Amino acid sequence: GRLRVLDAEQLADVLDERLALLSSARGVPERQRALEELLADTWRATDPRTRLVLSALAVARAPMSVPAIADLAGLPTVETADALDDVVSRGLARIASVPTGINRQAKISP
Question: Alpha-carbon distance 81 to 106, whole Å?
Fold first, then answer.
């Protein structure tokens, strides 16, 4: 759906609007406000490089190579690899080998 018609910036704006709606709506159950606060706290506590890598992976429609993630995240490849290791260790993405077995790629876990 939306990934096909929105670019990364537009998708981020939509997500920001949704989270703002959750936190500002009257009559929103406490559990929904608590979930939004938990997500926001977790995001703030995450290393900035890891956040950039997660953001890059979130807009990808297919597995990406580490250099492609680095380009999208605006990070050097070595820093991207370190951040990607953190993402994978948290179970938020997985590493897959492409058919040639030469290049390793990452994608967000379902």
Answer: 11
Can you read off the two tokens belonging to residue 106?
Answer: 């990452």
Q: Give the 3-state secondary structure of the chain.
A: CHHHHCCHHHHHHHHHHHHHHHHHCCCCCHHHHHHHHHHHHHHHHCCHHHHHHHHHHHCCCCCEEHHHHHHHHCCCHHHHHHHHHHHHHCCCEEEEECCCCCCEEEEECC
pTM of the model: 0.64
Q: Which residues of 51-66 are buried (b: 16+ CB within 10 A; e: fewer)?
A: ebbbebbebbeebbeb
| pLDDT tens-digit map of 59-68 | 877 788 889 8
Query: Measured between alpha carbons, how far apart are the two ends of the chain, in Å?
Result: 16
d(CA 39, CA 59): 18
